[in-house]
Amino acid sequence: MTVSIDLDRDLCTLELNGRLIELPIHQIVVNTDEDLRASVIRCVDGNAVISEDQAQMLIGAGAKDDRKHLFVDGGDGPGEH
After folding, report:
1. How far from 57 is each of 1, 2, 51, 52, 77, CA to CA, in Å?
2. What is the pTM of this model?
3. Burial 45-55 (b: 16+ CB within 10 A, else e)
4. Could you write out the three-class secondary structure of 11-42?
5. Residues 49/40, Cβ–Cβ less than 8 Å
6. CA–CA distance from 1 to each of 16, 39, 42, 80 (Å)?
7. CATH architecture label of 3-65
8. Distance separating alpha carbons of residues 12 and 80, to the nearest angstrom
9. 3-state class of 77 per DSSP?
């Protein structure tokens, strides 16, 4: 996934479905796709799976962080051995 961040213009450019999509960074919400276990940006044109580094860059630039922390349930909770 190609993601470009232009701080001067407050824009994020994504390649999505073969098209370049420009989104204002301050309107972006970074979510978690629980099935893919990955960060995503959801927009009208579709979902863009992004790396954690890209998610952190966008959040640092002003995007909203709405990610969930997913844990693997191995059956051993705290204090259980």
Report:
1. 14, 13, 10, 9, 33
2. 0.77
3. eeebebeeebb
4. EEEEEECCEEEEEEHHHCEEEEECCCCEEEEE
5. yes
6. 8, 12, 14, 41
7. 3-Layer(aba) Sandwich (3.40)
8. 45
9. coil
d(CA 38, CA 45): 19
The residue with tokens 């909203």 is 64
* Neighbour count for residue 37 (Cβ, 10 Å): 9
Lowest model confidence (mean pLDDT) among 11-15, 31-35, 38-42, 74-78: 74-78
| Tens digits of residue pLDDT in 38-70 | 999 988 888 899 999 999 999 999 999 999 876
